[in-house]
Every structure is written in structure tokens, then in C-alpha cells.
Amino acid sequence: MLSLCFSISDWWLLPVGVIIGTYGTLIGAGGGFLLMPLLILACPTESPAVMTAISLAMICANATSGTYAYARQKRVDFGLGICYALASIPGAFLGEAMVKHIPRKEFNLCFGAVLFLAATYLLLNPRRKGATDAHDEEAVRNFIQHGVRPYSFRRAFWIGVPVSLAVGVLSSLLGIGGGIIHVPLLSNVLHFPVHMATATSHFVLVFTTAAGTVAHALDGTLWPGLDKAIWLSVGVIPGAQIGAKLSKRLKGAWIIRGLAMALAVVGVRIVLLALYR
Fold first, then answer.
1. Closest residue by Cα to residue 91 from 159, 164, 184, 28
2. Which domain range does residue 20 map to?
3. Using one digit for the tens of pLDDT, what is the confidence trace for 28-82?
4. Residue 3, domain member (yes or no)
5. Does the residue 173 lie in any domain?
6. How many structural domains is the chain composed of?
7. Rounded CA gap, 227 and 103, in Å?
8. What is the rounded CA–CA span in Å between residue 226 and residue 216?
9. Is residue 1 part of a domain?
10. DSSP 3-state assignment of 31?
11. Helix ranges (DSSP H) in 125-193
């Protein structure tokens, strides 16, 4: 029988959730890349599927809170976000089905290496050539006032559809959300201002992680860790509001550098676990 008891011993996850919600919203990545290594250390006997379910539930709460804050700032491109969210949902269900069957060592080695290379690229090229924060600020103002997207991206838009499908798969497979891929896609390929990229990425995360959470709930892997997911979710909701407010005070280049550091942490963590598990 599934245990649904709420454990008071997991209270320490509440402040952890606040920290993860703040930083995850700040860089538009959800925060799963921080939570998963922590769960692996704190819950050595839990299965990967249960830890992934906990992470996805937390990210969903974080993304929902963060999207509300960003929507009030009028930085979310809902039209683009809905398109990419619809593409990511089938991937989320596919990833949940795969997590119990794919050899994790080989997959983690490849995925960790790709993330680390992406982090290196972003650290060396935190802003696209010729872009400035002043230009981004003007583009955001035009979007807020007139609903005009800041740059021409019609050709590149379709690149994001298969990428979003892959993001959905990886999100449910590894429990890290998809913002660490969506933000570089929106800012470097579709040429969105970073502040709009993080906000729109958070909106997409709501749907991707909700689909993954539902899938894990249906197969029963969410319920063993439900108490932990609740503690974390209660923490990330106010944390996301803090992160959204802080984002207005940081330059886009620093947000991208923060995202690059997140990618590096995830990449190294995945490779090391694959090598030494």
C-alpha cells in the first residue's frame, strides 16, 4: 500500500525550496538541476523514478509561481510559449515511460558531456554578437507596450518545436526541467532578450513538468515522495516571486552566465554519477 503520510522530518526542504525557487526562476531553469543532486545524497535508497517525480512536482510549482510574477511584468510571450509547450507535452510522457528502461550510465555520460560543452559555449559567449542590454531593454518595452516580438524569428521558430519535444523527454527522464535548454534556444537562436527568454521558458515549464508529474502520478512513482514534494513546493512558490523581482536588477549577460554555471554543474554531476555508480 502506498504511504501518503506527511513527514514533519522533511521540514528542512522548505528553506531549500525557497533557495531553489529563487535561483531557478532567476535563470528560467526551474531548479531541478539543484534538487536532483541533493535528493541523491539525502535519499540514497530512493529509486531514480521517485526522485524524478519529486523534482518535477517541485519545478511545476516553481514555474507556475514564477510565470505569474513574469506575466505581471508582461515579459512572457504566451503565443510562442503555448506552441512550445504543446510540443513538449508528448515528450514528457515519453520520458516518464523511458526512465525505467533505458540504461542510465551510457545515456547520462552522453547527456552530461553535451551539457558541459553547452556551458562552456555560453560562458565564452554570454551574449550574442552585437547585442547589448540597452537593446534588450528597448525590445522588452516594445513588447510590453505594443505586443511586437523583438526580433525576426519566423524561420528559426520551427527549430524550437523538435527541441521542445526533446526537452519534454529529458525533463521527465532526468527530473531537471527544460529551462537549461529553452533559455539558450530562445536567446541565442531566436534572438529573444534574455529577460523575455527566461520568462517564456518558465511558462513552457509549467506544462512540461505538469505532464511529467501526472505521468508519474499515474504509474505510482510520485506518491512515495509526495511529502517531500509538498515541502519543496511550499518553499519554491515564494522563492519564485523573489527570483522574478531580482531578475529585473540583473543584466542579461549575468543571467546567461548563471545559466551556464547551472549547465556545468548538471553536466559534471551526471558524468560523475555515471562513472562511479
1. 164
2. 10-276
3. 777 887 787 778 777 767 788 888 899 999 999 999 999 999 998 888 888 888 9
4. no
5. yes
6. 1
7. 28
8. 11
9. no
10. coil
11. 133-146, 154-157, 160-174, 179-184
